[in-house]
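Not sure how to ask, but would you mind making up any protein sequence you like and the tokens describing how it folds?
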Amino acid sequence: MFPSRISRQFLVAALGLSLMAAAPAARAELIGTQQLTQPQSGQDAATLAADRSTLDHFMARADVQAKLEQMGLSQEVTQQRLAALSNAEVAQLAGRINSMPAAGALGFQEMVIILLVAILVVLAL
């Protein structure tokens, strides 16, 4: 036996109302910069301070400053941009700075090329 049209409409309406009542209301708010940049815990604050210190020491180097000025960025603009970075961006940049090889670090390929050139020079003499 099939329900009548009125009972089906009532059932659909009741189901729709129950779904609307059960769904939580969505809220959207703007997040301020202060909320975004506040550290979550003491350990995060120490890590953030260490990352900012790494970034400041790197940017204070003379060769970095010379390259930035060559690219058209003054020290004031650079400092403003560094201050505007989020915590995640500071952590990412500090990680990249810490993972950079020291000057003069040669990889395996470079060593093989130097060795081959040296052998060719010795054979040529």
